[in-house]
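Appendix C reproduces, verbatim, an entry submitted by the partner laboratory led by Prof. M.T., so that reviewers can inspect both the input and the predicted structure.
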Amino acid sequence: MTDPWVALEPGADPAERVRVLRRAHETFTTAGTVPRPVRSVVAESWQRSARAGVGPDGTARVELTDGDLGTYRAEHPLARVMPLFRELLGTFAADGEHLLAVCDAHGRLLWVEGHPATRRLADRMNFVPGARWSETAVGTNAPGTAVALDRSVQVFAAEHFIRRVQPWTCAAAPVHDPHTGRVLGAVDITGGDRLAHPHSLGFVRAVARAAESQLALLVPPSRAEDTTVLSALGRDEAELRMDGQRIRLSRRHSEILVLLARHPEGLTGDELLCALYADESVTPVTLRAELARLRRLLGPGLLASRPYRLTAAVESDAAVVERRLETGALMAAAQAYTGPLLPASQAPAVTRLRRRLADGLRTALIAHRDPDLLADWAHAPWGEDDLEAWRALAAVRPTSAVRARLAALEAELAVPAGPLPLPAGRATYLQRPPV
């Protein structure tokens, strides 16, 4: 076979391949070995699926419905190219009794459209908008495997890990942010055996590339030339993007801009002094000197006084996370959260903002019980010792690796196993005991 990502080589008998694959699948689910001629991409995916605790008789879980689904879809970057997907794949799907599906970077289906009778059949296995079809949720499948590997892939019949999905064939390709290269999700075509052809995989690849080209032409509002953007999450020194320039700020200047961006009405000198300095001996002269240096760095016009305020709108990444949390777009909020706000800052007001933002997000993640989002948090530097997050993850994804990490963390922190009660109103971190 010339392309390992294509399910059937030219001239292969689909019916015979289905029989071979079913026997191989039965061997794997009973003995744990993968016989030939199962493709290596499929064999490795089956093994990942088994390690994630997926059972061959499982089913997809619907996680977003109604208003939550609508809110999340409206904010997702792939919403901008849905008209393109419909134009290029929609007619093909309807005429061929197939389905057009689009998922996010975690394998959650956002749109499923196409032939009505095929949709009704797909509904029976929860191949519907809002359902999670990641590999870790339902095993080998084209959209889930495509985002897991960041590769376009075709999955034929009994190559699917879950038995109820094995009558289907699908081909999917990941779609990337053209500016950052980050995987945004995948576009998928799902139907019967007729899709087991190299052309279907080549088709979705081409559609994905067309979507990336169109996204490159669309300037996001937060990146428009007339918008000033402050990036302070996960950085000790913030970056300000304005007038096409990138300005790296000192730690103190970072703190000042974070606070002024949050208070567009402005802050008096006394308010800013209390917000920035825990040491009451710091004088207003020190603050005025810092502001004078910042004004020279930013150029004329952006920083005004009496009260101190920014004369142009500044979009901060911290505000983006807060806004998405407030609207219930948890996935989008988690993706925008690249780390604690100015983690090395000791400024009293920044410390409060940092804690409030992190606690708000982690509390929402623990309550939502999304295994992929919890895993992202727990494996990040700021979540690796977060006992409550690891316990929540172990409850929804009890793999051996997760259970081992949880046991080690409980032993390290010398706390008893079992759920930890959350204080009313907010979550707290369990810190390591002092040495």
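The chain is about 45% helix and 15% strand. Additional entries are available on request from the coordinating office.
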